Automatic annotation (TrEMBL):
Membership in a protein family: Belongs to the archaeal Rpo3/eukaryotic RPB3 RNA polymerase subunit family.
GO molecular function: DNA-directed RNA polymerase activity; protein dimerization activity
Domain (DNA-directed RNA polymerase RpoA/D/Rpb3-type) ranges: 23-300
GO terms under cellular component: RNA polymerase II, core complex
UniProt keyword annotation of Isomerase present: no
Gene3D superfamilies recorded: 3.30.70.3110, DNA-directed RNA polymerase, insert domain, RNA polymerase, RBP11-like subunit
Record's protein name: DNA-directed RNA polymerases II, IV and V subunit 3
Record keywords, A-Z: DNA-directed RNA polymerase, Transcription
InterPro entries the UniProt entry points to: DNA-dir_RNA_pol_insert, DNA-dir_RNA_pol_RpoA/D/Rpb3, RBP11-like, RNAP_Rpo3/Rpb3/RPAC1, RNApol_insert_sf, Rpo3/RPB3_RNA_Pol_subunit
Length: 326
């Protein structure tokens, strides 16, 4: 039980900084880097999604090889809201693990032929016809879609694709997280040394404030006191303000009237999905998996404490009594 309590103490408090369909930035406070690494790994490797797993090409007279087409199809993200409700193909009781029924798979059909004599035909993800309207390419309703192949006059492509549930640990096509924008870091914090700050003139204070990004510090016009201003952390999902400030070397003060330090128990966490899941769905699914792991650990701990260790103690007592008789 003591081990579980120590795990519970690692559960952080949450503060969402920015939330979009694919992008989520949040702050975790009161935890350790070990917890953050576990959460990131679960989001990358263990949250299930749906992706094309098998492709059977009946006709392909295009300029692309079958292998290239299959690779391109498997990497098109599919909407995966139903992933948690589907069976893994090897565990489906409906088809005895064959992976070819509606409870563990989704079938796609594609039939395209360029019949125009002087034009080409763009085959995109919009041409994939699904057996389940809830599972479609992420850009199915986009006017352009994801390009698959360009057919020349007279060329034809006919295929069947089977999408199944999987996790990133078994293949990158199932990973719901983009690798580049999945990261975390400890934010820097600032503390103004009021005594040193009061030794500066107003002009020196203005010069000092100018060495930092705008709106981080402001000078009160009445008291001439420098204040740390609460500011919006996120500008947009591609430019995250990470608190890592760099002083202008031409306008430094010694000793510095400010202290910069990292909060070792606080982390800024950013994630961006591949479109298979929304960012909030990814986080909630990852937390559910983490919770299940902790519950399993708790049950395993109770099993050892309530049975195995007791049995081991009785065996030791019997062995001791037999040794005394000898």
């Amino acid at each position: 039980m003591e081990g579980l309590l120590s795990l519970n103490r690692l559960m952080p408090s949450w503060n969402v900084l920015m939330s979009e369909t694919r992008f989520l930035a949040f702050e975790l406070e009161g935890t350790t880097e070990s917890f953050v690494r576990v959460l990131l790994r679960i989001m990358k490797m263990e949250v299930p999604t749906i992706a094309i797993d098998d492709v059977v090409i009946d006709t392909n007279s295009s300029s692309l090889s079958d292998t290239f087409l299959i690779q391109r199809l498997t990497l098109i993200p599919l909407t995966s809201d139903l992933a948690t409700l589907m069976y893994y193909s090897t565990e489906c009781p409906n088809c005895n693990g064959q992976g070819h029924c509606r409870r563990c798979s989704v079938e796609f059909r594609l039939t395209a032929k360029c019949v125009a004599a002087d034009e080409t035909l763009d085959v995109t993800s919009q041409d994939l016809i699904t057996s389940n309207p809830s599972v479609v390419p992420f850009d199915f309703f986009d006017p352009t879609g994801s390009p698959i192949v360009k057919l020349q006059p007279g060329e034809e492509l006919t295929l069947k694709a089977i999408a199944r549930k999987g996790i990133g640990k078994n293949g990158v096509k199932w990973s719901p997280l983009t690798q580049a924008n999945a990261k975390y870091y400890c934010p820097a914090q600032f503390r103004i040394n009021e005594e040193l700050m009061e030794t500066l003139t107003l002009e020196q204070k203005k010069l000092w404030v100018a060495t930092y990004p705008p709106n981080l510090f402001q000078i009160d016009p009445h008291t001439q006191k420098v204040n740390l201003v609460m500011f919006q952390v996120m500008l947009n999902h591609s430019a995250i303000y990470d608190y890592k400030m760099i002083l202008n070397p031409e306008a430094t003060f010694e000793p510095r009237p400010i202290e910069e330090f990292e909060k070792k128990d606080t982390f800024i966490f950013t994630v961006e999905t591949t479109h298979a899941l929304t960012a909030s769905q990814l986080l909630m699914n990852a937390l559910a998996i983490l919770k299940q792991k902790l519950l399993s650990l708790h049950k395993l701990e109770d099993h050892f404490l309530g049975y195995d260790f007791a049995g081991l103690a009785s065996d030791i007592e019997i062995l001791d009594s037999e040794n005394k008789r000898v």
